[in-house]
């Protein structure tokens, strides 16, 4: 990697062992260089900027104090971990981050022994770290285990499940709560600072430990009484500071809050508390985008800003003289607002992605009818179910891969009661550089078996508007609408809001030799593929194209037409081939006696697809126009 800046320290740090040779007084300069290195790289190679800038000091302090990789750091919300990657033997390859065959977008154990656990989704760090801490305890290893949770992940239910279990399971885990404006405790000035110094002071803790050991030896203190002593200690702190937090209420030792950008102080605290027995929480206060003015001022935009000019702070956008189709999420946002103006029962729900899914458009005009519930997908669905039960019409927008976390809620809290609500699955299908944890590959396959669901996917932007309008009409039950990340294919997308027949597909193109059945925007690739196939066969191959629109209920009348007329069928979907559209077509043909029909299925294969551009991954999966054309031809 070619350095634009003279890195006195970073150029000589290949692994954390190199970092540990430095004096603690040199660490602030290391942090400056690491922050600059992240900025230098991400200006040219886009990624998640703000979160990684916010934990630079924490990253350096952790690798300086802990004996990684033997000691474990479990990152939560993996886009915080760019500095971690740079310090752990991957700086020379960081320019390949998020690129095809390059570094993975999030920590992943197969990539590096320093990556303790997969962390593409949020809120799993405490549970995973607790498992590792228990394993170390049972195997009598002196390994330290640290969970770094934050950037909104504390709103996830799994985090609280892990903390609840950590309070009752013997372990010596340290949880670091990276609080970047998700306030849990209020700062109380001088008294807070005094107590932080006291409770993390080596002498204080040494005396506290020796007294407790004496009490155990004399039989005055047993395990139950030890917990009582912790509770008494926490109660005294609560009285002095006039505050209490849930961690101390669960008998977990709590330290903080403290400045997460003071690396020297972080080192002091970590050295003091890392060997303490029992579960511990260190609460640090950080600023997302720390050290780069534009990112500090607008954390949402600079979470993942794309390319930008490092000096001016201006984001670089692709310009075109030709009008461009809008992003599907923007069509969703504008259409939702239009519908909400017409229908006072409509409300919007999203788990922490109002800007990403464009629900912020409705939120700006109707803040009392839009709800950002934080990173809590299961709660988002059940919360929507509660509103639907009492007569509202929720549009609950959740990214497809995150909807996996709400599977039980969909079944138990929506479908069984056939509640009138709409689940909008943004980022469905291949999403690109975020990789296997974020591809919306499985939703059609895992939702199709659930009774009482209607599942549809629009070919283009006008169809999305029509499906949204149809879904909010009376007595539609629970409707799922899936659509991909990015732009569609229609520039003039503002069509009239009108209903379409539920469960009905449409014939887009006549043909006599081969029928291609597609669902969703991948139908645009099919249109290109048909042109390629007919050109390569000299116009001798006649290909029909059907846009299925609905996966469930599937259009049986259309399938009968296709089964009677064609001996060759190709199904195309931007989802896993096992269990999706192709499987539904095969099941129908088999059950209705169409045994002499050959069906070729095109979709995501039975494997986790790596990261890269959507075009690159389509080619790898055989879902690009050229590959589909070869299936149509029969190769």
What does this structure look like?
With 635 residues, the chain is an alpha/beta fold. The chain folds into four domains: 10-185 and 245-293, 3-Layer(aba) Sandwich (Rossmann fold), CATH 3.40.50; 186-244, no CATH class; 328-482, Thiamin diphosphate (ThDP)-binding fold, Pyr/PP domains (Rossmann fold); 506-633, Rossmann fold (3-Layer(aba) Sandwich), CATH 3.40.50.920. Helices cover 40% and strands 15% of the residues. The chain contains 25 helices and 17 strands. The strands form three sheets. Strands 7-6-8-9-11-10-15 form a seven-stranded mixed β-sheet, sandwiched between helices. Helix 4 (56-65) packs across helix 12 (263-273). The longest helix has 19 residues, at 223-241. It starts with 15 loop residues before the first helix and ends with a helix.
Q: How are the elements arranged and paired?
A:
Layout lengths: L15 H4 L7 H18 L5 H5 L1 H10 L6 E4 L6 H9 L34 H14 L6 E6 L6 H10 L7 E6 L9 H11 L2 H16 L5 H19 L4 H4 L3 E7 L3 H11 L6 E6 L7 H5 L30 H15 L3 E5 L9 H6 L4 E3 L4 H13 L3 E7 H4 L3 H9 L5 E6 L16 H5 L5 E4 L4 H11 L6 E5 L23 E4 L4 E6 L3 H14 L6 E5 L2 E3 L3 H10 L2 E9 L4 H11 L6 E7 L9 H8 L3 H9 L2
Parallel strand pairs: 1-2, 2-3, 3-5, 4-5, 6-7, 6-8, 8-9, 9-11, 10-11, 13-14, 13-16, 16-17
Antiparallel strand pairs: 10-15, 12-14
Helix pairs in contact: 2-4, 4-12, 6-7, 14-20, 16-18, 21-25
Query: DSSP helix count?
Result: 25
Q: Kindly report the average pLDDT value.
A: 90
N- to C-terminal separation? 43 Å
Number of strands: 17
CATH architecture of the largest domain: 3-Layer(aba) Sandwich
Would you state the CATH class of the largest domain?
Alpha Beta
What's the alpha carbon Rg, rounded to whole Å? Answer: 27 Å
Largest sheet: 7 strands, mixed
């Amino acid at each position: 990697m070619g350095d634009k800046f003279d890195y006195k320290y970073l150029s000589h740090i290949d692994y954390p062992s190199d970092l540990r040779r430095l004096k603690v007084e040199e660490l602030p300069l290391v942090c400056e260089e690491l922050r600059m290195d992240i900025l230098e790289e991400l200006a040219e190679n886009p990624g998640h900027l703000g979160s990684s800038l916010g934990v630079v000091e924490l990253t350096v302090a952790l690798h300086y104090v802990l004996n990684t990789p033997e000691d474990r750091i479990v990152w939560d919300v993996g886009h915080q971990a760019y500095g971690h990657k740079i310090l752990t033997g991957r700086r020379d390859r960081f320019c390949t981050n998020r690129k095809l065959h390059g570094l993975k977008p999030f920590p992943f154990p197969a990539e590096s022994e320093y990556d303790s656990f997969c962390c593409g989704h949020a809120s799993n760090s405490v549970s995973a770290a607790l498992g590792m801490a228990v394993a170390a305890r049972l195997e009598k290893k002196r390994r330290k285990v640290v969970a770094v949770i934050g950037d909104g992940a504390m709103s996830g239910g799994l985090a609280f499940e892990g903390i609840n279990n950590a309070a009752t399971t013997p372990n010596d885990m340290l949880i670091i709560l990276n609080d970047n404006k998700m306030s849990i405790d209020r700062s109380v000035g001088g008294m807070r600072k005094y107590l932080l110094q006291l409770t993390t002071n080596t002498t204080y803790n040494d005396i506290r430990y020796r007294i407790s050991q004496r009490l155990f030896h004399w039989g005055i203190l047993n395990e139950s009484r030890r917990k009582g002593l912790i509770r008494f200690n926490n109660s005294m702190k609560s009285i002095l500071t006039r505050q209490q937090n849930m961690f101390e209420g669960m008998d977990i030792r709590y330290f903080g809050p403290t400045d997460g950008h003071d690396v020297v102080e972080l080192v002091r605290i970590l050295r003091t508390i890392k060997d303490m027995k029992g579960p511990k929480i260190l609460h640090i206060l950080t600023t997302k985008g720390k050290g780069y003015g534009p990112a500090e001022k607008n954390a949402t935009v600079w979470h993942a800003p794309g390319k930008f000019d490092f000096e001016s702070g201006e984001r670089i956008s692709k310009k075109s003289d030709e009008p461009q189709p809008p992003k599907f999420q923007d069509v969703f946002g504008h259409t939702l607002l239009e519908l909400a103006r017409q229908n006072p029962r409509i409300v919007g729900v999203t788990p922490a992605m109002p800007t990403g899914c464009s629900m912020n458009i409705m939120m700006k005009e109707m803040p009392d009818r839009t709800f950002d519930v934080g990173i809590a997908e299961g709660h988002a669905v059940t919360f929507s179910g509660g509103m639907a039960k009492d007569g509202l019409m929720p549009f609950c927008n959740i990214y497809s891969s995150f909807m996996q976390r709400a599977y039980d809620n969909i079944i138990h809290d929506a479908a069984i009661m056939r509640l009138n609500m709409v689940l909008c699955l943004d980022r469905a299908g291949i999403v690109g550089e975020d990789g296997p944890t974020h591809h919306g590959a499985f939703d059609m396959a895992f939702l199709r078996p659930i009774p009482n669901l209607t599942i549809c996917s629009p070919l283009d932007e006008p169809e999305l508007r029509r499906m949204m309008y149809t879904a909010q009409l009376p007595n539609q039950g629970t409707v799922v609408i899936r659509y991909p990340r990015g732009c569609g294919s229609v520039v003039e997308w503002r069509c009239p809001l009108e209903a379409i027949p539920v469960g009905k597909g449409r014939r887009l193109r006549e043909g006599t030799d081969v029928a291609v059945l597609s669902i969703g925007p991948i139908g645009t690739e099919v249109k290109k593929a048909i042109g390629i196939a007919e050109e390569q066969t000299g116009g001798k191959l006649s290909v029909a194209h059907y846009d299925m629109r609905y996966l469930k209920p599937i259009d049986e009348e259309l399938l009968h037409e296709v089964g009677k007329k064609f001996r060759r069928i190709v199904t195309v979907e931007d989802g896993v081939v096992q269990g999706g559209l192709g499987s539904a077509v095969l099941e129908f043909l088999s059950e209705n006696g169409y045994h002499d029909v050959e069906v070729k299925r095109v979709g995501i294969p039975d494997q986790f697809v790596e990261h890269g551009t959507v075009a690159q991954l389509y080619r790898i999966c055989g879902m690009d126009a050229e590959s589909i054309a070869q299936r149509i031809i029969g190769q």
